[in-house]
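Input sequence (319 aa), recorded before submission:
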Amino acid sequence: MLLADLGADVVRVDRPGGNADGWGANPVLDRSRRHVEADLKTPDGVALVLDLVANSDVLIEGFRPGVTERLGLGPAECLARNLRLVYGRMTGWGQDGPYAHSAGHDLTYLAVTGALHAIGRSDDPVPPLNIVGDFGGGGLLLAFGLLAAVWDAQRTGRGQVVDAAIVDGVAALTGMVHGSLAQGEWVDERAANLLDGGAPFYDTYRCADGKHVAVGCLEAKFFRAMIERLGLAGDSVFGGDHLDRVRWPGMRLRLSETFVQRTRDEWHELFKGTDCCVAPVLSFAEAVRNEHLVARGTFAEVDGVLQPRPVPRFRPAPG
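Predicted structure, token format:
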């Protein structure tokens, strides 16, 4: 989707009859691309893909390791047809290692990288949708690698294989946490740190209507602005350094007692346009109507489907 949004001519090769696992087409993820059907277990199907490869910059495959080689569509065969081809491989575990040939999903890849351990309340880890692994550590970093390889191929005339594994990508995304662990600035426990819900000034709070607001005032000046806006500047529990963990339980209790006194939208009106770093927690249906996202045109309706516009934006090019 991201590559097609930027103007790439993307042709997806489907198996005849659709996906055997029952996953249907997605009107947003599948936008801006053409597709052909090919039975890769037949010589004609393989020949069709190789013909496409001959005039393409990139091939992306998402099979388990060794499958395309058995089909006759591995890197050797494809690069023989197109020396400049970038051969992108998208897997969860990677092309090698003890787990490489095992099935998995976003959640299992997050589990072994340590990322899942850090997400959720203190009692249990929580699946964070499939954004962190599949799309962040997986597809997004694959696209990053593909574009780097295409840039290189244009200059050297030689393509290469891009081995994108979700476990590697998620590990890279957690680089800041590993650095903080090494410095003794991160506790290897859930809900015990600045960014995982452990800090009372970086968390969500229930409001009078059962909805929530998100509080993210990490810096002292933003924290003080929030406390003043709440009318709590004279409360002793907020005196001193807000980073002092000993003070956190008392601060959380006082903030919980305060935010539950008004509705989410009432708090939004109070904090809107300030430097307090407080925002309403919106549902997907509410987000598309948010005044800021509407003003920016973040979402658009295409063929009757409301969806996010292509990113990032380019200026002066229209994108």
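Checked by second reader. The mean pLDDT is 96.
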